[in-house]
Specification:
With about 500 residues, the protein is α/β, with parallel strands linked by helices. It has four domains: about 5-115, 3-Layer(aba) Sandwich (Cobalt-precorrin-4 Transmethylase, domain 1), CATH 3.40.1010; about 120-245, Methyltransferase, Cobalt-precorrin-4 Transmethylase, Domain 2; about 255-280 and about 415-505, Rossmann fold, CATH 3.40.50.10090; about 285-415, Rossmann fold (3-Layer(aba) Sandwich). Helices cover about 35% and strands about 20% of the residues. The protein has helices at about 20-25, 40, 60-75, 95-105, 115-125, 155-160, 175-185, 210-220, 240, 265-270, 290-300, 310-325, 340-350, 365-375, 395-400, 425-430, 445-455, 460, 470-480, 495-505, and strands at about 5-10, 30-35, 50-55, 80-85, 110, 140-145, 165-170, 190-195, 205-210, 225-230, 255, 275-280, 285, 305-310, 335-340, 380-385, 405-415, 435-440, 465-470. The strands form four sheets. It has a five-stranded parallel β-sheet with strand order 3-2-4-1-5, with helices on both faces. Helix 7 packs antiparallel against helix 8 and helix 17 (about 445-455) packs parallel to helix 19 (about 470-480). The longest helix has 16 residues, at about 60-75. The radius of gyration is 28 Å and the shape is elongated.
């Protein structure tokens, strides 16, 4: 049995870990990772996995020895260890040394390659490493040492004569020295070049120009960040091939307040448009304290004229209650079904139920009018599975019209105040204007946000941040606390919300 998986975590973007790497990561009891490995990748580990940050990639020999002894200790405790290395373990890293040490100590391991940053970062910047006529070689130089001070021990004259593409990942202090060394040994100062920082991430930055121009840029505006130098004729293709940093939400930070288990659709759509989706759940969904009324209502589903589902959560909870009785969609019998929202209708369809009514407007008042236009409401038997803090408007209006309404709590909405390891400091980011937009997809998320950050200061906290609400009910909840909503889609769905956020920022130029 494999005790240690030595996994290349890739260049930054969590989506660039290999399928095999992800599979091995999810088998682990303990994850030992370089500091550069992002939180997005760490969230892919199984819940309850022990996560240990062991510092920067390429540690000193002494630190490396401590890391390997830590891994051996965990293995001897009977744990399966995933050792996540930034990029690829065997490319300018101590992965080979680490693997040999483990083998010498009788530890079984599997090596899982990763996408090296020297391959991915240029591609995300729109720079092909090779191109017909662009040179027949790719030269990779290690631009740092254990101290971060010594220059790479290479034959600079030989490097300067090579006619292909040159790559060098170096610290902020070393990048100017590398450029100076190249030029002083005969490398053409007019050669196209680029420096890529934080590659494959929504915060990626690319500076381009000739070698001489980059030297001047680094003198006038020195950076504190490491970066990847790419030099060669192929850099000229960036003008035609850049793609990553031209997506509509590139560089924007967008707060996603949905429950963790429901956040992926919104986060993935934002990320696909270039945004950095920051997951900060305001609420979590829990079963009702007393599930007996829900189970009883599910057992009598066929007795109702209409069952109105106001959310995906209500559908899931009701179908779970049906399953406890060993029943499925056939238990609905002749009952008609109303779905509030297209997402709710879609979830019902996955359960084998096609909604008889999907109102065009998702507000309770509109649901009432849609039902009233379809059937006589007098003596109509209606089941309403809902949240514990759901609006009671629909039930009240139906009862006033003579309907017999049965309300059952299908789920509870709980404020999620549990900060996890690696979670960002959202309060600090909002305070410092580092969040471009906050998205709310329910009134309960707004209320939880206010409880968490304080009713007296939440409006001021969001004053310089775009607030996007999925629909009028959510927008009204925000307005009640003095929160100004800037974005609200015409249709109240996740895709429409993302499109509305994108359209808003298309009209607002990004600032540096």
């Amino acid at each position: 049995m494999t005790a240690v998986y030595l996994i290349g975590a890739g260049p930054g973007d969590a989506g660039l870990i290999t399928v095999r790497g992800l599979d091995c990561l999810r088998r682990a009891d303990v994850v030992v990772h370089d500091h550069e490995v992002g939180a997005g990748i760490l969230r892919l580990a199984r819940p309850g996995t022990e996560i240990i940050d062991v510092g920067g990639a390429g540690p000193t020999a002494l630190a490396q020895e401590a890391i390997t002894y830590l891994i051996i200790e965990k293995v001897r405790e009977g744990k399966v260890v995933a050792r996540l290395k930034w990029g690829d373990p065997f490319v300018f890293d101590r992965g080979g040394e680490e693997a040999l040490f483990l083998r010498e100590n009788g530890i079984t391991l599997e090596l899982v390659p990763g996408v090296p940053l020297g391959i991915a970062w240029p591609e995300y910047a729109g720079i092909p490493l090779t191109y017909p006529g662009g040179g027949d070689s790719v030269t990779i130089i290690r631009g740092f040492d254990e101290t971060g001070k010594a220059m790479p021990n290479v034959d600079w004259q030989a490097v300067a004569r090579v006619q292909g593409t040159l790559l060098c990942y170096a610290s902020a202090q070393q990048l100017p020295r590398v450029l100076d060394a190249l030029v002083s040994h005969g490398y053409p100062s007019n050669m196209p070049a680029a420096i890529v920082r934080r590659g494959t991430l929504p915060s990626q930055q690319t500076e381009e120009g000739s070698i001489a121009e980059l030297q001047e840029i680094l003198r006038e505006r020195p950076s504190r960040e490491p970066g990847l130098l790419v030099a060669g004729r192929v850099v000229s293709f960036r003008e035609h091939l850049r793609w990553f940093d031209q997506r509509p939400l590139f560089g924007r930070r967008v707060l996603v307040t949905r429950p963790r288990e429901q956040a992926s659709d919104l986060a993935d759509r934002l990320t696909s448009l270039g945004a950095e989706a920051i997951l900060t759940p305001m609420i979590r969904i829990e079963p009702p304290t007393d599930r007996a009324p829900l189970r009883d209502a599910a057992a009598r589903a066929h007795e109702f004229d209409w069952i109105v589902f106001t959310s995906v959560n209500a559908v899931d909870a009701f179908m779970d209650a049906l399953a406890e009785h060993g029943r499925d969609a056939r238990a609905f019998g002749s009952a008609h079904v109303c779905a509030v929202g297209s997402a709710t209708a879609a979830r019902l369809l996955t359960c084998g139920i096609r909604a008889d009514l999907v109102p065009g407007d998702f507000k309770a008042e509109s649901v009432f009018e849609a039902l009233k236009a379809l059937v006589p409401l007098d003596s109509l038997s209606v089941l309403l599975p809902r949240a514990d803090i759901g609006r009671e408007v629909l039930a009240v209006r139906l009862r006033e019209a003579g309907s017999v309404v049965t309300e059952v709590i299908a789920y509870r909405t709980i404020t999620d105040e549990g900060q996890r390891a690696g979670d960002p400091d959202v309060y600090g980011m909002l305070l410092n204007g580092q969040i471009d937009a906050v998205t709310f997809t329910s009134a309960s998320a707004v209320q939880a946000f206010v409880r968490l950050y304080g009713a007296d200061q939440v409006a001021d906290l969001l004053r310089h941040t775009v607030v996007a609400a999925i629909g009028p009910v959510t927008a009204e909840a925000a307005a009640a606390f003095g929160i100004a909503v800037s974005v609200q889609p015409a249709s109240y769905t996740i895709p429409a919300l993302v499109d509305a956020v994108s359209a808003h920022f298309a009209r607002v130029p990004a600032t540096a």
